[in-house]
Amino acid sequence: MGYFNYLSSEQKRMMFFIPPEEGPIVDKEILAHALGATLYLPGNTNRQLCKLIVENKIPGLISTVLCLEDAIDDRDVAGAEKSLVLQLGSLLTLKERGVSLPYIFVRVRNVSQFRRLTRVLGPSLHVLTGFVFPKFDLLNGRKFFEHLWETRRRFGVTLYGMPIIESPAFINMETRAGQLLELKKLLDYYRELVLNIRIGATDLSGIYGLRRNPEHTIYDIAVIREFIAALVNIFGRPQDKYVLSGPVWEYFPTGERLFKSMLRQTPFNEQFGSEGKKVRQRLLCRYLDGLIREVMLDKANGLIGKTVIHPSHLLPVQALYAVTHEEYCDARDILSNGCRGGVSKSIYNNKMNEYKPHTNWAKNIMVLSKIYGVLNEKYDYTSIIYAGEKIQGLGQPVSEPGGR
């Protein structure tokens, strides 16, 4: 299993200076960066999940969350739990037969469901990479991780937790700083178990009666932008090695545009000419230009990966995390200098690389280069999107969109 495996060997050879590494990732710090576009699916998809995986119905699927919370009607919880147990049991059989599975997480509703579900799943826990903890706060957070620790010990499984920060105390100005600092103490205590910290932007926006439209990114919502800044300030320090993931993009193919797109024409025109214009137009018609811009802003703010709710989102998000040749060369030159300091002109002759302040950035680029690969000179994310668009059925709906 590896990124961009829907591309042919020839396409990979043409596009990549260093191809993405393949095979399961064991190292936790690498895995934390490797989830990419994490697709949410309802936890009550019956036997469909096994079929989707075995028949590769979702090209590019690397990580998925089976949601038992917002994606499930309150009246259907018991049935969804039974369906999920059956699905994971079937996936365990497939795994034992050597079938490669994506990284699978289960989003539980609360601590009591988490405890109940782990008891019922038993050996099927070996199919999972971890659990997602919604509405995570200082009261339930310790209980979530205590039970996760006990589950790992009892069943001999390596499972991780991904808390979703979406409660009012963490965003309201009068409590935010204190609550986030206490949250960091809690997560520091369970650091070994924390894979990602995820941002519940939909719930946080809802607290203020806000919702971004498809013409804007989450960074255009000022109160959420300030919250993300605070979260990065506290959890984004390299010595702590936390990975923050970008919030969900809520929109999928439909409708007409209102405002002029900010997705530049030049990269598409330069790479593919008139055909590039068609690819760009298809992205605009599917509201993916807003997603692309938001991922660029995620990256600029140090967020890695993104929650997605539609298969058409996988390709653009993953493409944007492929490392460019320019980024790789800059990072390599910075790290080769060691700790001596100083500056030098980049090999692209368009910037100064200042060694000491750019070292942490360069280290992150090298991690991403192993996971998502390094593109050849003159190739960028549009090259991967273009190739993906040419593959029959890539990114087409396979089910109703999942939870957030």
In a nutshell, what does this entry contain?
This protein has helices at about 10-15, 30-35, 50-55, 75-95, 110-120, 140-155, 175-190, 200-205, 220-235, 265-285, 290-300, 315-320, 325-335, 355-370, 380-390; strands at about 15-20, 35-40, 65, 105, 130-135, 160-165, 195-200, 245, 305-310, 345, 350-355, 375. It has about 400 residues and is an alpha/beta fold.
Structural commentary:
The protein has 404 residues and is α/β, with parallel strands linked by helices. It has a domain at 22-256 and 281-319: Phosphoenolpyruvate-binding domains (TIM Barrel, Alpha-Beta Barrel), CATH 3.20.20. The chain has 15 helices and twelve strands. It has helices at residues 9-15, 28-33, 48-54, 77-96, 111-121, 141-155, 173-189, 201-207, 222-235, 266-285, 288-300, 314-321, 325-336, 355-372, 381-389; strands spanning 16-18, 37-42, 63-67, 103-107, 130-133, 160-165, 197-199, 244-245, 306-308, 343-345, 352-354, 374-375. The strands form three sheets. Strands 8-7-6-5-4-3-2-9 form an eight-stranded parallel β-sheet. β3, α4 (77-96) and β4 form a beta-alpha-beta unit. α13 (325-336) packs across α14. The longest helix is centred in the first third of the chain and has 20 residues, at 77-96. It is globular. The chain starts with 8 loop residues before the first helix and ends in a 15-residue tail after the last helix. The model is unreliable at 255-260 and 392-404 (pLDDT under 50).
